[in-house]
Structures are given as C-alpha cells and as structure tokens.
Amino acid sequence: MKQYIIGIDIGTTSTKAVLYSQRGDVIDYANIGYSLYQDEPDMAEQDVDEIFEAVVDGLTQVIRRSDVPVTEIVGVSFSSAMHSLILLDHEMKPITRSITWADNRATFYSDELKKSGLGQKIYEKTGTPIHPMAPLSKLLWIKNEKPDLFSKIHKVVGIKEYVLYRLFGELKMDYSIASATGLFNIFDLDWDSDVLEFLGLRRDQLPELVSTTYQMIGLNPAYAEVIGLPKEVPFIIGASDGVLSNLGVNAIEEGVLALTIGTSGAIRTVVNHPVTDPKGRLFCYVLTEDMYVLGGPVNNGGIVFRWVRDQLFTPEKETAAQMKIDSYDLLTDMAQKIPAGSDGLIFLPYLGGERAPLWNADARGTYFGLNRNHTRAHMLRSALEGIVFNLYTVLLALEEVSGSPKSIQATGGFARSNLWKQMLADIFERDVIIPESFESSCLGAAVLGLKSLGIVDDLSVVKDMVGTTHKHVPNEENFSAYRQLLPIFIRLSRILNDEYSAITEYQRKYKG
Ligand code: ADP
Predict the structure, then answer these.
(1) pLDDT at residue 467, as a whole number
(2) Which residues, in sequence order, are bridge partners of residue 315?
(3) Which ligand 1 atom is the nearest neighbour of the CA of 264?
(4) Whose CA is nearest to atom 13 of ligand 1?
(5) Distance 305 CA to ligand 1 centre (A)
(6) Pocket around ligand 1: residues whose beta carbon is below 6 Å from it?
(7) Gap from CA of 417 to ligand 1 centroid (Å)
(8) Which of 9, 15, 16, 305 for a ligand 1 pocket mutation test, highest count of atoms within 8 Å of Cβ?
(9) How far, rounded to the nearest angstrom, does the alpha carbon of residue 373 sit from its chain's CA centroid?
C-alpha cells in the first residue's frame, strides 16, 4: 500500500515542504526562503521565478533526501499565502512581480471604497474585508495609477496558480484562494459579476475556478525529472494557508476556535455555510464547499513582544545572548512575577496599525493607567496581556456572528511560553489546547489531499494526526482580574479610535 503524501506551503517568507506518512508522522522537511522587495514605501513584492524555484527545490529535497520509494508517494497537496497578485500577458508571461498581502500601496483605493459604502456591499458578497491586502484593492490601484499595465492584462492570478501553471500548463484557481481576492462571491462560488464590472475586468481574464480537492495529473516531464517524481503522481490544488491551518490543528468542528500568535495573529473558526459580518470586521474564506472559515487577522502579535524586548529590555537581551539562553524566556520569567492585570496597567498593542477588529491602519499603541509603582516588568506583562485582550475583542465580533466557541486550539511562537498560554486561557476563560502538529498548513494540505485521493473518507482523521496535545485551564483568580480590566480596554479602544488619525498625521509630517 502507498504510504506517503507531501504537503507544501508557499508562504510569505519561505516555502515549506513536508513529507508525511499517512498517519501524519513527519518523514522529512525542507524550508526554502526568498526575498521580499521593498523598493518604494509600502511596496512588498516577491520574485515569481524565485518562488517557483523554491517550490521545485523543496519538493526535490524531501523526495531525494528521504529513503521513501517514490512509488509510495500518493500525491503532493498545496497550501499558499492568500491575496497575492500577479498579472500575465498574452504569452502567459508575468508583467508584475508577485504583489503580496503585505503591500499597502492600494490603501487610498481601499479607503475610498470603504467610505463610499460600496465596499461594505462588496464585502457582504465576497467575505474579504476591504483592505489594501486584497487583490480587489490592488487592481483598483493599478487601474488608476498604472493604466498601461492594466490594459495589458491577459490573466490575473496568484502565486499558487502561477506555480501550478508552470508545472502542469493548466491555469486553475481553487475556491479558497479565490475567496480571498475580493472578486469572488462566496454564496454563489463564482466570480462576482458586479465586482468584475466595477473593476472593468472580463471573466476570461480570470482563471477557471475549481474545488480545493481538484487534482492535476501530468507533471511537465522536465520538472518530473528534476524533482524525481513520476509524472503520473497527482498534485492536489489545495487551499489557502489560513483555512488549511485550521484543518492542520484539528479546529474544524463547530465550537472550536483556532488561535495563532506568531509574528502577527489570528482567530478562526469553521462554519458550514458562508456568513459575513454586518460590521465588516471578519473574513469568511472557503475550505471546502461545506466548510467556511470565519475569523479575523491581527497585525499586532508577537512582533509587539519583540518591540518591547528590543526597546525596553536591551540589557536583558544582551545578558541572554551571553548566557546563550532565549531572551524571550528570560523576559517571560520576569513578567511571571507581576500579578495578572499588571496592577492596573493596560496596553493597547496597536504599534503597526490594526486589522481586526478595528481595521484602522492609523491605530497606534498606548500605555494607560501608569503610576509611579509600575516597573518595566509591568510594562512587559501588560504588553503580553494587551495582545491577548485585542484577540479577545476579535472573539467578541466572531461571537456576534457565529456563536460562542467552547475550546481553543492555539499555535505559534507564543506557545513556547507557559505564562503566555496560561494568560490566553485566563483572558478567554476557556480551555486552551496546544497541538503539537508541525507546519499546520502543510499538514492541512496533506489531509485535504488524502481526502481528494479517496484514501480517507473524512477530514476529521486529522485528530489522529496532530500528535500529543497540552492543555491549559483558566485560573479563577486570574480571570476575575482580567474580567475587570477588559471593559476598560474595550472602552479605550473605542474612544482612542477617533484620535488615531490626528496623531498619525503628526507622525507622518514629523518623519518628513
Ligand atoms: P512567524 O509567525 O513569523 O512564523 P513564530 O510563530 O515563530 O513566527 O512567532 C514569533 C514570535 O513568537 C516572536 O515575535 C515572539 O513574540 C514569540 N516567541 C518566540 N519565542 C518565544 C518564547 N520563548 N516565549 C514567548 N514568546 C516567544
């Protein structure tokens, strides 16, 4: 019996390829990084050839390095970052680099769309929040500011479509990636005619849409040779990294919340039909025709902890380096000594503007409640608490739309800290489970691939593949402290939301 499957994730900073056994054991792993181009303010682009080579390399490495006979590999299944945009000309050659989700050059156009009210109407059909990250906004920007480029568009694709086109000569986009473009109607599972008309794009300028379990067979022989895989092995188109991460951490049942705090953060839950938020705060992306992932992405996750470390704890960072210990561990030990609630110091973590729940790029950070007894360690602990408070406010938005989740599956760099995980259980007042699954989007892709190939009947097999888990239960004393501070945090974030533009205007001027 064939035993192995590869899950591959085309991420923002690198492509990861994981060779799994059918039980979910990791047999081999490759991670190939690439550059981000930021030649002008707000630009965040990547080179399409560099990414294509990384995919080929990643596959080649895990296939050629392991002892697994290639005849036992059942397939290769894909995940990819959302919102990337590449324009192709009549010869199917790229006329742009890959413009990533992090590119903010379309801000003016997404702001205008939001203000006009048309943005909310479009969001309610597409499930993609109106934001410069979305291809919808980027296409508006290109149409208005680079009309020559816009007129040359033969096809509009994302990075996964481009890579698979080069490997198979087939141009298809899965429902999941499409649902993050802002052009796709999640209720009809089709391109939205009104949005296309508004943009001035024809349907034939977009890829044909397929289910996330769609298979491509007939790998280009030249690449089959390089990679070392028979050309008959099916490639499964797969889905976006976000929705596959829910699958890969076993958060696909109703009432289970997937929460990530890495550099940024997100909360997501699976519902069985498409839904949108009347207030436009949440995304709704497709996983399969009967699974939709509802959630909110936040900019301010672990990157805020990094800022606190680098700006307020330079001596400790140096000590940790000399002692060859993890500087984050040293700092969380210090934060541990401060009581829950940081003796009434509250931190609003909006250093990098904020997506959910505010969707305000002008948002900025605030310490509130400082008194003379507060120390640097209080500032540290309240920053960690503030990141979780903000995620909690996203949960409140989610609860308005889809009900209250019972438990949380949490992942990301923050999970290296017991203090931070316990804080999450205490602030959310729910059990927090940390699955050990490795590269959750790759595992999600692999499981979706097994389903597509008919090897498993149901995606729920993932529960036997995520490995051992650890559980944190809420501590009553701590959550009673947080329960008193949360309403203040929420009121502050409302009040301050009206003032952010004033201060960012000053900051922009000051920067010259
Ligand atoms: P990415 O999202 O870029 O893949 P990670 O998931 O590794 O990154 O998350 C990185 C973040 O995790 C860091 O910015 C930091 O805030 C946090 N982190 C890393 N190590 C620790 C630790 N030992 N304790 C607490 N937080 C940590």
Answers:
(1) 81
(2) none
(3) 2
(4) 302
(5) 8
(6) 262-263, 302-303, 305-306, 326, 328-329, 332, 412-414, 416-417, 420
(7) 9
(8) 305
(9) 39
Residue ranges of domains in the chain, CATH in brackets: 4-250+437-469 (3.30.420.40), 302-400+475-510 (3.30.420.40)
Q: What is the pLDDT of residue 2?
A: 67
The strand pair at 86-88 and 155-157 is best described as: antiparallel
Structure tokens at 321: 């380096």
Q: Indicate the pairing of strand 73-80 with strand 4-10.
A: parallel
Tokens matching residue 8: 């591959």
- Contact 499/362 with Cβ under 8 angstroms? no
Q: Name which residue sits closest to atom 26 of ligand 1, judged by CA.
A: 414
- What average pLDDT does the structure give for the chain? 96
Tell me the C-alpha distance between 278 and 123, whole Å. Answer: 9
pLDDT digits (tens, 9 = 90+) for 332-353: 999 999 999 999 999 999 998 9
- Give the 3-state secondary structure of residue 346: strand
Nearest CA to ligand 1 atom 7: 413
Residue 437: the pLDDT is 74
Q: Residue 71 carries which side chain, given as an amino acid letter?
A: T
From 101, 324, 328, 419, the mutation candidate for ligand 1 (largest count of ligand atoms within 8 A of CB) is 328
Q: Rounded to whole angstroms, how far apart are CA atoms 178 and 158?
A: 9
Q: Is the pLDDT of residue 18 over 70?
A: yes
Instruction: For residues 445 and 151, give the distance between their C-alpha atoms in angstroms, rounded to a whole number.
Output: 36
Q: What is the largest CA-CA distance in the chain?
A: 70
Q: Answer whether 0.90 is exceeded by the pTM.
A: yes
Q: Please give the helix or strand (H or E) that residue 470 lies within, else none.
A: strand 469-472
CA 17 to chain centre: 17
Work out which ligand 1 atom sits closest to the CA atom of 412: 6
Cα–Cα distance, 500 to 365 (Å, whole number): 10
Please write the tens of the pLDDT for every residue from 208-236.
999 999 999 999 999 999 999 999 999 99
- In our burial notation (b when 16+ CB lie closer than 10 A, e otherwise), range 81-103 reads bbbbbbbbeeeeebebbbbbbbb
**In this structure, are strands 407-411 and 256-261 parallel, antiparallel, or unpaired?**
parallel
H or E stretch at 199: helix 193-199
* pLDDT score for 335: 98
Q: Which amino acid is at 38?
A: Q
Kindly state the helix (H) or strand (E) to which residue 257 belongs, with its residue range.
strand 256-261
**What per-residue confidence (pLDDT) applies to 512?**
47
How many residues belong to the chain? 512
